[in-house]
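Journal club prep — side note

Before the paper discussion, L.F. wants everyone to see what a predicted structure for a comparable chain looks like in token form. Sequence:
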Amino acid sequence: MSTNLTDGDIEAILGILDGWPANRKLCWPALVETIRIHLGKSWSRQALDRHARIKDAFQLRKEGLKNKPAQNRGGFALDLQKALETIEHLEAENARLKNENRGLLEQFARWAYNAHSKGVSESILNQPLPRTGRVSTRT
């Protein structure tokens, strides 16, 4: 087993889910194996399921695949097949991002209500974050 999931690992796993082919059954064991092959790391279903973004993306993609029958693309030119795969990938990513955005908007509304009910003003909420004095390791 690998170490804890990093933000980069999560993004890579979300990309794998977004690009999951319609002609392949999506299940946790298949996802774990695909992650191992593509990322060279392995996590259990339980470890992946503990991360809300992965869990939500998995459920959303599984539902999307259930409602979309696999297409037979045998007669298409190779570049057209690639374009169709890219479109499917982008549609899945778009659906996932809309779902994540909806959750963040709900969270924001909840936070705004709670801040207002506790008398926290907008000017206090908009204050910049304090400097930490640490060097950023992100690129």
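L.F.'s comment for the group: The mean pLDDT is 88. Keep this in mind when we get to the figures.
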